[in-house]
């Protein structure tokens, strides 16, 4: 695939859906419905033809705001068939954020569920965007009605594989989400099992369980790869831990991804006598992980290989982990549970001191910077030059180190590191200690500004047993170094604010506690 003979994501998916025909692509776990490749192809072609009548052309933006159901991927596929750009929303976004994003990308058509219609209409009006609204379960039926011209349809061509195909909004843990522009080439590369393996053997099929919608990189990643490889997805509307265990047993799920923030809830909710032996691989990632989390997941899934995955929206999702087909590499994962694996071939990287730009060696903490084919084009409508260094490496914003075996360990986000005098403190480490307290069910750590020491760490916790803030602080301070002590104390709250992807939203957390500091 190159610029001399560009193949669009739409053409790639059209050909794959045609190839696999009546083979099952989707099981909708909440309803028990089944969707084949050919059914999804037919519906998506019809929707593409109707969108063309709406005036959608190559480069136009089409959006969705809906949960997972048997029709939810049709607008995405139809848009790609036309050479358009897909950019999707989530009704859990604060309205003020959705307004800013809608005003920025200005979708031409927006497909919405009945439940989210009022939210979307209000946001579009405030944003001053005149998008055509198509409602699932209502006007959407016109978009999949049979047509006389559907058998003649062919996907649109593109001029270059570097053109943007999808805009995905970043999680916005420390600020507002940004639109990450991902190219046709990125999706072509990620569709193939070139770095992240979803099977133990090359001839094994996989059944992938996920609940991510098209708003998330994992939602698009999983549907694109499943279409391309002819495998099966089991999808659900939301991540209900008890139901997910049941889906693993019912559909003989072989692969799943679980965010690190959901691990302990998932483990604690395991039903008795559930058969999860079909699950061969379980990837986790998305935020810092602890040894206890990895150990608990391994104990809950004794027949499953547990792998820590590293990636971000800007890298078209996960790109680094140990290879589960390599016994030596999996032994390294077991021996080094906090490692995200070995850097895959084709990725140039360096770890640098963020203050001096000096390249660091093994066991030195610094920012990970990478060059690879699947990097984003940039942020939508924003000058993105500052996120690349003078050598063209993407600044991931993640502090990491690697050992003598070139195994990588992600420490924390640069913006979330706490500075105490001359020391840098990882909140993730203190969170691990907080979660060891028997009364703490959720935890986060932030830095409270101090005029002499720069920052004092504060623990923010949700508890499910009677305790006091002082008792929790004493518990932690007796188990950490003097530098890591919770000098700003502990605050018990009813709920820790999170992004729609489940990550702790530090900016909202600071607002939550500033009045009581």
From TrEMBL:
It is found in: Peroxisome. Belongs to the ATP-dependent AMP-binding enzyme family. PROSITE patterns: AMP_BINDING. This is Uncharacterized protein. Pfam families: AMP-binding, AMP-binding_C. GO terms for molecular function: CoA-ligase activity. GO terms for cellular component: peroxisome. Residues 16-380 form the AMP-dependent synthetase/ligase domain. Signal peptide: none annotated. Keywords: Ligase, Peroxisome. It comes from the Eukaryota. Residues 433-503 form the AMP-binding enzyme C-terminal domain.
């Amino acid at each position: 695939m190159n610029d001399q003979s560009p193949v669009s994501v739409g053409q790639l998916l059209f050909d794959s859906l045609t190839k696999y025909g009546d083979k099952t692509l989707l099981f909708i776990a909440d309803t028990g419905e089944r969707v084949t490749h050919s059914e999804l192809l037919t519906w998506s072609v019809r929707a593409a033809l109707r969108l063309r009548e709406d005036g959608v052309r190559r480069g136009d933006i089409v959006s969705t705001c809906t949960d997972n159901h048997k029709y939810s991927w049709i607008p995405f596929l139809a848009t790609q068939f036309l050479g358009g750009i897909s950019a999707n929303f989530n009704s859990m976004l604060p309205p003020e954020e959705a307004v800013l994003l809608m005003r920025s990308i200005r979708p031409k058509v927006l497909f919405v569920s009945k439940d989210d219609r009022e939210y979307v209409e209000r946001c579009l009006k405030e944003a001053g965007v005149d998008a055509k609204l198509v409602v699932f379960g209502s006007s959407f039926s016109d978009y999949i009605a049979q047509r006389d011209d559907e058998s003649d349809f062919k996907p649109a061509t593109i001029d270059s594989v570097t053109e943007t195909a999808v805009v995905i909004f970043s999680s916005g843990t420390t600020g507002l989400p940004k639109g990450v522009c991902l190219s046709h080439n990125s999706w072509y590369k990620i569709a193939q099992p070139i770095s992240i393996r979803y099977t133990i053997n090359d001839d094994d099929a996989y059944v992938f369980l996920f609940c991510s919608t098209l708003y998330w990189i994992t939602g698009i990643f999983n549907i694109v790869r499943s279409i391309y490889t002819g495998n099966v997805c089991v999808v659900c509307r939301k991540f209900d831990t008890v139901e997910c265990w049941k889906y693993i047993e019912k559909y003989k799920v072989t692969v799943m991804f679980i965010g690190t923030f959901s691990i302990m809830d998932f483990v604690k909710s395991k039903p008795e006598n559930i058969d999860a032996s079909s699950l061969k691989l379980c990837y986790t990632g998305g935020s810092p992980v602890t040894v206890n989390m990895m150990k608990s997941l391994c104990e809950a899934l004794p027949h499953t290989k547990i792998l820590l995955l590293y990636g971000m929206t800007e890298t078209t999702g996960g790109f680094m982990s140990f290879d589960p087909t390599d016994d030596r590499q999996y032994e390294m994962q077991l021996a080094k549970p906090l490692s995200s694996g070995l850097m895959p071939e084709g990725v140039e990287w360096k770890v640098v001191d963020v203050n001096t730009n000096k390249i660091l060696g093994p066991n030195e903490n610094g920012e990970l910077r990478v060059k690879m084919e699947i990097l984003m084009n940039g942020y939508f409508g924003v000058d993105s030059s500052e996120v690349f260094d003078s050598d063209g490496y993407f600044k991931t914003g993640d502090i990491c180190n690697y050992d003598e075996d070139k195994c990588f360990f992600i420490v924390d986000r640069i913006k979330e590191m706490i500075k105490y005098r001359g020391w840098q403190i990882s909140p993730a480490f203190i969170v691990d200690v907080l979660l060891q307290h028997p009364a703490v069910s959720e935890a986060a750590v932030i830095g409270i500004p101090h005029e002499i020491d720069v920052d004092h760490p504060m623990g923010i916790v949700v508890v499910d047993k009677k305790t006091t803030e002082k008792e929790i602080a004493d518990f932690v301070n007796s188990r950490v170094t003097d530098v890591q002590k919770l000098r700003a104390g502990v605050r018990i709250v009813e709920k820790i604010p999170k992004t729609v992807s489940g990550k702790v939203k530090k900016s909202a957390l600071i607002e939550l506690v500033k009045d009581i500091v």
